[in-house]
Structure to design on (331 residues):
């Protein structure tokens, strides 16, 4: 393992972000805010950094990176040409250049960005995840249960709203879903209960679970699905945005449940060969049984986002978080 002093002799970094669309959405623009914060942190750590954008022109991206002869690439790519299913191209390219880069490696990124592959591996490793059905396979819903439809590849709650939640006896739902997403969706059982975000940060001492965060659904009417949809994350003028609240007060959460959430998050880190920084999202049913919803490799690290909020609760500055992410790029 390299010493910390050896790691921070590097002075040149490229901050790689996805090319922004002509009419960008709020979740797209957020990557620019992340890049700005990372630039400041890198400067505090003694780096000179430059931004480069990545799209489907991989040769151009390669040359734009290599012309700087960087010691490090800070990978903030979230989509390629606004497509979440191509996010793995960034670590694939960076790995081929043999330049240290931050965040998850190609295998972890590909597995976690495809929600079905994620679930299949979770089941193989005996980690609970809600029962699911693929859009291309046989779908035999329980008429008495509630389900939620999700896009297969997207993150940031793209495409998810109240209409995504439906009863198993809704005969016309699949026609609607196929019109919306084609074959690029899946359906999973909706766990009616609590929701938790568990952030894990790498570094010299290995992965560390940050303070646990619960998503609290305030003032939600009885018939309104308690979900973190797109509006809750990005639309500031909505009921969902103002009433979906992150809380670190787990005084009424059993020690046993907290321990199980931490243990499951660390298992996911190991099984999926994750690096740098990760957020694992859970639903917990009425019997305090947690289920992994998804694993977010390289989650948003804006200062107001969930990952850094958890790190801040642990007493870490943004620069310290970036420092630890960089360490994992070298180990």
């Amino acid at each position: 393992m390299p010493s910390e002093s050896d790691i921070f002799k590097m002075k040149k970094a490229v901050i790689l972000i996805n090319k922004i669309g002509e009419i960008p959405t709020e979740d797209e623009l957020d990557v620019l805010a992340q890049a700005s914060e990372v630039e400041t942190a890198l400067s505090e750590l003694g780096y000179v950094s430059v931004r480069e954008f990545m799209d489907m022109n991989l040769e151009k991206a390669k040359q734009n990176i290599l012309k700087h002869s960087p010691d490090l690439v800070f990978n903030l790519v979230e989509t390629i040409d606004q497509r979440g299913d191509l996010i793995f191209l960034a670590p694939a390219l960076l790995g081929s250049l043999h330049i240290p880069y931050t965040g998850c490696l190609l295998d972890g990124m590909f597995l976690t960005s495809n929600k079905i592959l994620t679930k299949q591996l979770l089941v193989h490793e005996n980690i609970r995840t809600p029962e699911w059905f693929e859009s291309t396979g046989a779908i035999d819903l329980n008429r008495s249960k509630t389900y939620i439809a999700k896009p297969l590849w997207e993150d940031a709650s793209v495409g998810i709203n109240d209409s995504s939640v439906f009863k198993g006896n809704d005969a016309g739902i699949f026609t609607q879903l196929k019109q919306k997403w084609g074959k690029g969706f899946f359906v999973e059982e909706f766990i009616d209960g609590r929701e938790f975000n568990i952030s894990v940060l790498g570094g010299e001492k290995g992965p560390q679970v940050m303070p646990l965060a619960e998503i609290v659904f305030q003032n939600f009417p009885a018939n309104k699905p308690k979900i973190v949809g797109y509006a809750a994350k990005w639309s500031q003028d909505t009921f969902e945005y103002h009433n979906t609240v992150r809380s670190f007060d787990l005084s009424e959460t059993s020690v046993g449940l907290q321990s199980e959430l931490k243990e499951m998050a660390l298992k996911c880190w190991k099984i999926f060969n994750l690096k740098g920084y990760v957020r694992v999202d859970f639903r917990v049913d009425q019997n305090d049984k947690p289920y992994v919803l998804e694993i977010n490799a390289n989650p948003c690290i804006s200062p107001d986002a969930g990952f850094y909020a958890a790190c801040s609760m642990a007493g870490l500055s943004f620069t310290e978080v970036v420092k630890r992410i960089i360490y994992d790029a070298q180990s």
The two ends are 6 Å apart (CA to CA).
